[in-house]
Write a structure and sequence with these properties.
With 532 residues, the protein is mainly alpha-helical. Helix content is 64%, strand content 0%.
Length: 532
């Protein structure tokens, strides 16, 4: 660092071509990418050197100026087919912008160009593999990002164990990403991360790579439940990189693990207030905490403060759902209206949001507002029958005449369709395979012979004139017979009792029953205990 500062002071005031190029390289090494990009741009205006253009696009990628990167790519398209470094830098720009598919295509192209060019120049396979390591690391990262973890894991292991690139930064990135895929192997992951904390290795890494390694180290300690060590690492990292939002999240996880929920909320709020431009992930975590506490209004307010996601489909859908959940329909509609006002009509997302807005208004039975949205939607695609039919339904609730006008634009229904033919069209009779056809025919004949016709009714018997009355109301109904068992005599070997008279109805002196002596039979049920 001191050598770079000293070099800058020496180059100060020298505007020679070579001195300016050296100054841009020093600024790039000091991670002052915007200044380096400005110098490279000035040099590229006067020279079309391919290496200079490649360095210029690398500085633009690091500074996050993706719009200017696209302009440079459009201007120097020929370099995409012959210089793999230029193609690789273009892929990195698309990757940071979120265009993963294009980034992967560019990386595959850069790998092919690299192999062809280095082979033709006579490089060995080991040297070619060493040069390809950085490209393969980025491809593995894309595989990891899209969920192809097995392929990513295989690529990282091949780079670390077999290729062993000479570039320390490439090896460190591969090891760090490999650790994120081996979550369960905590001891081995911690050993590898501690090795990367070597001073010689850390000097070769840029700030973002150092922050990522430090965060993963703290995360491993948190998984191992070594909370004090994790807390110390987080505190040191927050002092070194106060603007990074990963470390407040890790500190909040420690507080949440200690069940200090109010302190967790306070820590995230404090960071969001101090660094609002870097607080997207912090605010998302804060909104999640509010939702876990059923404080939907606070969650909505927090989500509305995230400018980076303000008019994205996921944020629009979330805010509409949450506002509808608390019954604030006006705010839900205003979210959709605000999105339609701020999104260009040329974008495909505009029509999608417009359709969702119309469907939402129809669901709320606000037909006049829904019809306005449907008319606007129909103006973009007049042949959309689904929109046209929805508009007819919406207008029918308040303007029957206009509804009839739009109804005439719908295709006429064919009333001359033969419904029987339509039902039988495409109907296939099931077929059954019969092994013995003779037996089947004999079985049918046998069944037919068993069927008998019913005999005619006997009209010689007198007709009951009370047949329409219920059975119990007919004159000849005698009622049901009762099975009066109480008057029957006792059966079996038990002694019979004389009928009760005045002389023998008095209560005997000894009322306790006499228990029979002798052993009980084995097949007799056991008496259950009396419940108290």
């Amino acid at each position: 660092m001191n050598a770079h500062d000293e070099a800058l002071s020496i180059l100060e005031g020298i505007y020679d071509y070579n001195a300016m190029e050296l100054r841009a390289q020093v600024l790039y090494s000091l991670e002052r990418y915007d200044e380096a990009a400005d110098i490279y741009k000035e040099l590229c205006d006067n020279s079309k050197d391919e290496d200079l253009i490649t360095n210029y696009i690398a500085a633009l990628v690091r500074s996050g100026n993706h719009t200017e990167v696209e302009n440079v790519i459009a201007e120097f398209k020929t370099l995409l087919r012959k210089k793999f470094e230029f193609t690789y830098n273009a892929a990195c720009s698309y990757l940071e912008a979120g265009n993963i598919s294009t980034a992967r295509d560019y990386l595959v192209s850069a790998k092919r160009i690299c192999e062809d060019s280095l082979t033709s120049e006579g490089f060995s396979q080991q040297e070619i593999g060493d040069e390809l390591a950085i490209i393969e690391t980025q491809i593995a990262f894309i595989d990891q990002k899209i969920g192809n973890t097995e392929e990513a894991l295989h690529s990282y292991e091949n780079i670390v164990n077999n290729v062993k690139p000479s570039d320390v930064a490439v090896n460190a990135v591969s090891v760090n990403n490999l650790v994120t895929l081996r979550v369960r192997d905590e001891v081995d992951s911690l050993r590898k991360l501690n090795f990367l904390k070597n001073e010689k290795i850390m000097k070769r890494l840029v700030q973002s790579q150092k922050e990522s390694i430090g965060f993963n180290q703290g995360l491993v300690y948190l998984h191992m439940e070594e909370i004090d060590t994790c807390r110390n690492i987080v505190n040191d990292l927050r002092k070194l990189y106060p603007e990074n939002d990963l470390f407040p999240l890790l500190a909040a996880a420690i507080l949440w693990n200690d069940k200090k929920f109010k302190k967790t909320e306070g820590a995230l709020k404090k960071y969001a207030e101090n660094f609002p431009e870097n607080s997207m992930r912090v605010k998302l975590s804060l909104a999640q905490i509010y939702l876990s506490q059923d404080d939907v209004s606070a969650a909505i307010k927090t989500l509305e403060e995230i400018q980076e996601l303000k008019h994205t489909p996921v944020m629009i859908s979330t805010l509409v759902t949450l506002n509808e959940r608390i019954g604030d329909i006006t705010s839900a509609i205003s979210v959709l209206e605000d999105a339609l006002e701020n999104i260009s009509e040329e974008k495909p997302m505009y029509l999608s949001i417009l359709r969702k807005c119309a469907q939402f208004l129809l669901k709320l039975e606000r037909y006049e507002e829904a019809s306005d949205k449907l008319k606007l939607l129909l103006s973009h695609n007049p042949k959309d029958l689904h929109t046209l039919s929805s508009l007819v339904i919406a207008l029918s609730h308040f303007d029957a005449e206009q509804s009839h006008e739009y109804e005439e634009r719908l295709p006429s229904v064919n009333t001359e369709v033969d419904l029987d033919t339509l039902e039988l069209e495409g109907f296939v009779m099931p077929t059954f395979e019969r092994k013995d056809k003779t037996k089947a025919s004999e079985l049918v004949e046998k069944k037919k012979t068993k069927r008998r016709n019913k005999p005619p009714k006997d009209t010689s018997r007198p007709i009951d004139e009370e047949r329409w009355l219920p059975l119990y109301e007919r004159s000849y109904y005698k009622g049901r017979r009762r099975n009066n068992k109480s008057n029957r005599m006792a059966q079996g070997s038990a002694p019979t009792m004389a009928p009760a008279t005045k002389s023998n109805t008095t209560k005997p002196a000894n009322t306790k029953p006499v228990r029979p002596t002798g052993k009980k039979k084995n097949n007799r049920r056991k008496r259950r205990g009396r419940r108290r």
